[in-house]
Amino acid sequence: MLNRSLPFLLFLVLVMTGCSTAHQAESRSYEKIEVKVKTEPKEIKLQEQTNILFTVTGDGKPVEQADVKVNIRQEGQTKSEELKARPAQKGVYSIQKVFAEPAFYHFTIYVKTGLNMQVVTQEIDLRSSHAATSAPKTEEHGQEHQTGHVMIHLMKDEHIKANQNTTLIAHVMDKQGPLTGAQVQFEYYQKKEDKHIYAEARERVNGEYVAEVKLKQGNYTLICHVEKGNIHEHTETALTVK
């Protein structure tokens, strides 16, 4: 009787060990996560589908079980589009996008890999007269602050014009992902003035808080305040209005 039970027990141990190993792989913590972006075709054509590929590496190795979401916003507009990237190959995730206008597009890429969170911002510039055939210009843009388990990533339009509406954006994440239901407020002031102005932000999508402001010409300090329960965090960056 005991001998007959041994194969079953051995099989049970192997299955449990395999499940444990898989769970450990999904929950692995990385010292450094990197995201590289490229488009196919390399030269973007307006009104045609473009494949956008995101290569995710953790400590220099491909990450196969990442959760990758992409928020796309055309500069000057308040509405944005959120897409979930699908696995394309080992460590590579993809979305499809049709660019309708020759404009400046902001990409916010949310990457969750087990115990890690990462927010990466990229821009694609299609504003030139040869936008339909020129290669995209990509660059990192924004201000990131992380304390404990909360990350605040500030974004703003690349070119802010005086006395015109501009959109301030804060992406807020905790260890579970986008932080929803927080009270977020933007504070801004010029160093030569004592007047501090506050703008309440609204949550446009999960973890993304926006506010429309109109600024006069000058150099500003911009502070983003985030509060929820025991969370009281803030970050600041410089802002130039021409």
TrEMBL record:
> Which Pfam families does the record cross-reference, listed alphabetically?
YtkA
Keyword Signal: yes or no? Answer: yes
- What is the organism of origin for this protein? Lihuaxuella thermophila
Superkingdom in the source lineage = Bacteria
Q: What is this protein called?
A: YtkA-like
Keyword Oxidoreductase present in the record's keywords: the answer is no
YtkA-like domain: which residues? 30-108
For this UniProt record, the keywords arranged alphabetically read as follows: Signal
Signal peptide positions are 1-24
